[in-house]
Design a protein that fits this description.
Layout: H1 8-18, H2 22-41, H3 46-58, H4 72-78, H5 86-94, H6 97-100, H7 107-127, H8 138-146, H9 156-165, H10 170-182
Helix pairs in contact: 1-3, 2-3, 2-7, 3-5, 4-5, 5-7, 7-9, 8-10
Amino acid sequence: MISSMPNREDSINLLKRYIESEALRQHSMMVAVATEAYARELNKSDGEVDKWWSAGLLHDLDWEKFPDEHPSKAVNEILPPLGYPMDVIMAIKAHAPERTGKEPESELERYLFACDELSGFLNAVSLMRPNGFSDMKVKSVTKKLKDKRFAANVPREDIRKGANLIGQELSDHIQFLIAVFKNSSSETYLE
């Protein structure tokens, strides 16, 4: 039995081993940065912050190579032997309740769920803007959320559910993540 959770470098190397798509790597890093920011906002210990970051980074670990088994392949076969703690594994399981039957219940589970789809949506919005996140406003994001054709694969109901799960108004959740991504250079972590 491994006595400690793998460090960030180990987690990034694991991500690179399973995910080749730059877009999916970027999404994974954005969710890691988002969950880490919330952990810090909630005054979690450094160890907890690392868990939240790891859950965010690895939540889609098996999506590219095992799409039909996502996230079960990761939570049942890949992560446990490597020493990832059960709360990280359960959060990854709970980010896809429609596939696993596990609803987000713990704080980490709820925040990972809340950050996942919204991070993807915000990234799509940033790609349509000349200045990316730097001058993004909540109003422009909420307008895009109403356009069902924009980023059509992002389930709007999951975005709303995520905000409810963490007890936030959707506009406040959006504002928090815009600020996080504006002040982050998440792409540099994966080089």
